[in-house]
Amino acid sequence: MNDIDIIKRVQAGDSKSFAFLVDKYHRPLLNFIYRLVGDARIVEDIGQEVFLSVYKTIRDFDISMGTPFSAWLFITARNRCISELRKNRQTIVSIEDSMEFAIREKSPDQAIIDNEHLDAIRTSLKLLPEPYRSTILQSLHGLSLKEIAHKEGISLGTAKSRIFRAREKMKTMLFKHFGGKDYGKL
């Protein structure tokens, strides 16, 4: 069963299905958190807080946006870690670094493939024209549509439209880069 099927079940009221997601992502999430905060004493607590937060807001997870659950989970974890680091005034890790941490948890072959995909995504982000680039980057940094609209001084619909168009433009660039590989769930 894939993540989307599990999420649909949880959103339909089957709270026990969430355990499948916890089992699947528990270890990689804790490794990711440890690499960000560097303090083994608080890793498990932050992991539990992240899973609880995701569980409480999973009804808001919009499957139609095409965002992978793992991206949402790890961005939530990164944001929680930033809060913890700010409390302790420690160094904050960039999104790019945190994505590379997630890649390191995979087999060497898969890590190479994922690293190539990550490089292609970075390149497509750089080539994305404004205002699409700034809007999607804000989204990737964890800002909500409402926060993006407020920050940019645009309507909620415009923010949503820019993110949609940015994804479409990136899909086209990635499609060309990888010689036809489908990126329908970017």
Please give a structural write-up.
Helix content is 73%, strand content 0%. α2 (18-37) packs parallel to α4 (69-88). The protein is built from 9 helices and no strands. The two termini are 20 Å apart. The protein folds into 2 domains: 1-105, Orthogonal Bundle (Rna Polymerase Sigma Factor, Chain: A), CATH 1.10.1740.10; 107-186, Winged helix-like DNA-binding domain superfamily/Winged helix DNA-binding domain (Arc Repressor Mutant, subunit A, Orthogonal Bundle). The chain has 186 residues and is an all-alpha fold. The chain has helices at 3-11, 18-37, 40-57, 69-88, 95-104, 108-127, 132-140, 145-152, 156-177.
Please name the defining characteristics of this protein.
186 residues, mainly alpha, Rna Polymerase Sigma Factor, Chain: A, Arc Repressor Mutant, subunit A, 9 helices, 73% helix, globular, disordered C terminus
Give a short summary of the structure.
The protein has 9 helices and no strands. With 186 residues, the chain is mostly helical. The radius of gyration is 17 Å and the shape is globular.
What name does CATH use for the topology of the largest domain? Rna Polymerase Sigma Factor, Chain: A
Classified in CATH, the superfamily of the largest domain is: RNA polymerase sigma factor, region 2, helix turn helix motif
Oligomeric assembly: single chain
Task: Report the average pLDDT across residues.
Answer: 79
CA-based shape: globular
Note the run of SSEs as H and E: HHHHHHHHH
- Measured distance between first and last alpha carbons: 20 Å
Radius of gyration: 17 Å
The level of helicity is over 70%
What is the CATH first-level class name of the largest domain? Answer: Mainly Alpha
Structural class: mainly alpha
Q: Tell me the domain tally.
A: 2
Please tell me the CATH architecture of the largest domain by its name: Orthogonal Bundle
Number of strands: 0
